Amino acid sequence: MNKKGVEDLLWNVMLIVLIATAMAFLIYWIGDVASGKLIESQMDSKQAALAVDIARPGTEILFEKNLTFSGNNITSNAGAMPFSYSHFNPKAEYENNGVKVNG
Amino acid sequence: MDKGQVLGSSLSLGWRLILIAAITLFVALTVGSVFSAKQDVRKAEASILAERITGCIAKEGIVEPNFDLKGCFIEDNEIYVSANLKSLETNFSRSIESGSPEMKVFCRVEQEEGKKYPSCISQKYYVLIDNKKIERGMLELSIGVKKYESNV
Questions:
Q1: Are residues A23 and A42 in the same domain?
Q2: pLDDT tens digits along A42-74
Q3: A58's torsion region: left (phi>0), alpha (psi -120 to 50) or beta?
Q4: Nearest residue in B to A50, CA atom
Q5: Position with higher pLDDT, B44 vs B38
Q6: How many CB atoms neighbour CB B85 within 10 A?
Q7: What residues of chain A lie within 8 A of the CB of B41, using their CB?
Q8: What is the pLDDT of residues B117-147, one digit of tens each?
Q9: Is residue A12 domain-shared with residue A62, that is, in the same domain?
Q10: Which residue from B minimizes the CA distance to A2?
Q11: For residue A54, what are the domain limits?
Q12: For chain A, how many structural domains are there in total?
């Protein structure tokens, strides 16, 4: 193979490697997005907040997900980024990884 | 390879890279905008709040004429509640509000998709009013929830 042929081959290999890397990252990212991993923390904190909102006095809720409570904010650290959402139930008290609604 | 060929090859590679980057960006933006949109739960939240308020001020369906919203929910600037109690038998009526009143205006305007407007609901309940004698009445609740950053 002459010098020009070697250079062309090298360029093409580089290009193929570059495209393959970009596509691999894209497919991995699309997989995460489509499986809901990116909005997992949002869904968890919103579901927990709505569950606390709707809970009747005397209800005890234990969350399987890892949530942190501060004031009336419920934060989920699942997925890519932490997400906080507030509830409006004035009788909710936090206990370990759960909530108790006083009567 | 002469200078012209090198330049031509570099330009061709540059364009190919730009094209790949553009396609990757387009796919990522399209997929991202579809699957990672924020879930708007404010309507559900407003409905739950309406149920909570009626349970709080109309215990067993009877409302005191001097009812109050204090202690029914955690009040903040993100939530607006207007409660209007009217007797259907006498001319008794009472209105109370909680939260920022500007939301009352925003709830009335026609809302554009994707813009930052509060999510609002209005519900009416038939109740009994304990006004010396028991009267039939209507409780009208208007609720607006902002929480733009988390939902829009």
A1: no
A2: 999 999 999 999 999 999 999 998 899 999 999
A3: left
A4: B45
A5: B44
A6: 24
A7: 46, 50
A8: 889 999 999 999 998 899 999 999 999 999 9
A9: no
A10: B1
A11: 38-101
A12: 2
